[in-house]
Amino acid sequence: MIQEFQTTPITVSIVEDDSSLCKGLARLLGQTKDISCLTCYSNAEDALRGIPETPPEVVLMDISLPGMDGIECARKLKALCPLIRIVMLTVYENPERIFKALAAGAIGYVLKHRPSEELLNAIRDAHYGGAPMSSHIARKVVQFFQSNVPADEAGELSAREREVLELLANGYLVKEIADKLGLGFGTVRTYIRRIYEKMHVHSRSQAVAKYLQRSPPSA
Prior knowledge:
The chain is of the alpha/beta class. 50% of the residues lie in helices and 13% in strands. It has helices spanning 19-30, 44-50, 70-80, 95-103, 116-127, 135-148, 159-169, 174-181, 185-199, 204-214, and strands spanning 10-15, 35-41, 58-62, 85-90, 108-111. Strand 1, helix 1 (19-30) and strand 2 form a beta-alpha-beta unit. Helix 2 (44-50) packs parallel to helix 3, helix 6 packs across helix 10 and helix 7 (159-169) packs across helix 9.
């Protein structure tokens, strides 16, 4: 759980076709000191038009939307706004659909109708560099990228970027990395953005998977 919050609220956009759920989520965020609801959309098409114009820091994306589904919306949105952190909303923990969403660029997921504090912590975790998901889903992501994605881009990283990547792979959050290395929060975010660019990935899970492929952990 994040113990210290940034001075300005984490901005969130919601993409959810269930109007009552969407209003409830927006109301919850509006009552939370460190998180604010920036915009709400009822379908993927409107989200793809609106979110790039006013980008939030985190997007809560329904995995099942009318028309274009949340998985395809996440893929298109990450291409338009690479730094946005997308957390999928789903009714059931369907491994295949969640895995496809993560492969499309989402960084985690949260089950609908879970306790409100769990949702808020998932948003905080996502914003600060985490990847809210269960361990067996995380293993699927790693296995996929180990078998399908070349890892030689890791060789282009600077010594400091490798250090940051290793800490990411060991589960450290951005703030924790900053404290451990004696760097500013924004500086670490810049290193992570450069790592993503050099490794041609869009999320922490993809970068870590490439790192693990190149330097597999000892048994």
